[in-house]
């Protein structure tokens, strides 16, 4: 390996496409020569390379030339990248050249996004996104690779599509075992199941509910998506162009059920996993399940928890819960307002679920009080769509050529380390636009914040997965006093009241614990054991050292969609956007292992927090 630090030949003038093409020529020459130092010199002093599986068989971000050097020294020989070409003409704005590109590795094909800035008279990479989108020889049966369906000619052994499907269903779990078992059949499990199906990986998605989509149908009746439709498509099959911007929960439930059928996802309803153990000898999992009440043993090689980052209810242990005579439940089990008309309801919490529930209760003439225990970030839905999402996920974005797939990559190309710097101006604009609303809200006594550094909703979601509300109307009820608001911590419950630490007593017939959810590794502790959950470590968060996201800096979502410290155990989840986008990279990692492709993992995540 040569150790030259000769400067790149790229100049700072010329057509953006020519500049980008010259940069890629320098990069490829350095990579072919295995000259890591020359390749690293093409990156700016402050620079970020985010790789989604293509080089690292991981989801990882490296920073600066030292990070680039470490990544390439570990991966270059096995990756053998080549064929870097522009996918479309590059453009330039504010001195930054942005270029979409394609490339190949020894085993796959990739797509990426490059941003070049000027430093010391040269164009150098500021951000560099590389993603794997397919494996050579294992392309998905799409477009020119789509299946014929009908096989012409005469064949006495011919099977119809239905017969093949029935035979597969009858053998799965008995004479044949799934290579991948996905526990959890919500949007995450279904999206991954569809990806694995298309890639030809024997898999099975199991869920405790009777029908796909019941995870949505069984929630409180006013629930709807707070994210717009352009942000929420599933893989392969987008929502139709007359689909509502904000879909009601039951409509989403029906879509997930239809999607499961159309995409032929191997899916067992009414199936509960009761235990799982790993065998070092056989290199497989033994998972005990109950399917429609009957015990069954599955032996998958890979085990995926798609049980939802908002799935394991966090219910605080409050003194007096055993003496309270009314209805006490977590927000995830809230049935809706119908049975509570004329009653007094106290909702503990002030985030998305709390506001949704309070709003629906008020609409049904319920005397409702919200207890705010800590500050909450609120952003109005219309403002979020216009300022926060409109350039990427909207009808105007589609008209400008920004497809959902392209938007996903643009969003992914902004490294988490600096993402907040792009978010802060957007939320400052929202604060100015809705100044009157925030003044009214704070006059009501509501404790509002914009995140630890003013970066708003998305960073709160990525860092901690809580602490926010996308306002679709209920915040005005608090600001106006229609929903009563108190601030404080819960001390205890009596037979008929919630008592705060300052002695305030809130009469209650119903108490709703809108108190959020625990780390996903709690599911691992329940199904496998606590030792395995501790080896896995905390799930979610970036290590930003902000509220509820302790350091050290991780650079990526902890343990999501990538190899973990527990061999052949994977975590998959997030909102519809993340379930769609990151299911691709998880599916490709699983497919490569199924096919016996070597997958040396760069920078396997360390465990700093156990829960």
TrEMBL record:
InterPro entries for this protein: Auxin_biosynth/cation_transpt (IPR050982), FAD/NAD-bd_sf (IPR036188), NTF2-like_dom_sf (IPR032710)
Biased composition (Basic and acidic residues): 139-168
Keyword tags: Oxidoreductase
SUPFAM superfamilies xrefs: FAD/NAD(P)-binding domain, NTF2-like
Region Disordered: start-end pairs: 139-170
PANTHER family attached to this UniProt entry: FLAVIN-BINDING MONOOXYGENASE-LIKE PROTEIN (AFU_ORTHOLOGUE AFUA_4G09220)
Protein name: FAD-dependent oxidoreductase
Protein source organism: Nocardioides currus
